Amino acid sequence: MPVLVASDLDRTLIYSPAALALTMPDARAPRLLCVEVHESRPLSFMTETAAALLTDLGDAAVFVPTTTRTRKQYLRINLPGPAPKYAICANGGHLMVDGVSDLDWHARVTARLADECAPLDEVREHLLANADPLWVRKHRVAEDLFAYLVVERELLPEEWVKELAVWAENRGWTVSLQGRKIYAVPKPLTKSAAMREVARRTGAELTLAAGDSLLDADLLLAADRGWRPGHGELADAAWTAPQIAALPERGVLAGERILREFLRATRNTTP
User: Are strands 100-101 and 94-97 parallel, antiparallel or unpaired?
Assistant: First the structure.
């Protein structure tokens, strides 16, 4: 049976220049491969070693990129290795099959959101009314599924995020702070549900996962084994679970370590 590897992308496998955490002397810094260009600017990177590991993993397992990015944002990433047949976008709102959204899956997700949590418009209006223009740079709605703010972190009041989380909790939504983005996401909109669907379709009996943020917690708990890097929301909260390995590596080298762990686990279960 195939092994399914569902991994978050940003700050897990790929890194912006600000998230690389190259703390070693310049002469010892790893060689980097650019995997995303946006508006003619290099945007995301992984080490060349990680790129080779991901290529090997794509040959050994069913690799499923799993991201909160919109479909458009995901499709501009150019990952090394075989093109993944499946990808999970919009935090599980879109299940991509050969680069195209599965419309039946999307319809099932949107029906569940309508039944189980407050509407997106209510959440968006709350964000617009309560976020201070002093520290908000952008208001965004992603795929008509969830909302997020782009903020200046150094000006963002910590208490505001906590108060937003309490408000959202009472309406069936969750809040996640990742870098310069504050996400408000419906609780039923999960990466784990989409991962289970891919496992069903592929017949995978072993599922592996990795992620760094609060929005990855359900994915990690749903997998047979999971890894989180030494940075991000989950690390800051010292979050863990019996099947989760908390890695010490931070930044782009954490992505390399995660891919090594994926490959080791895959090869140990493949005859």
Answer: antiparallel
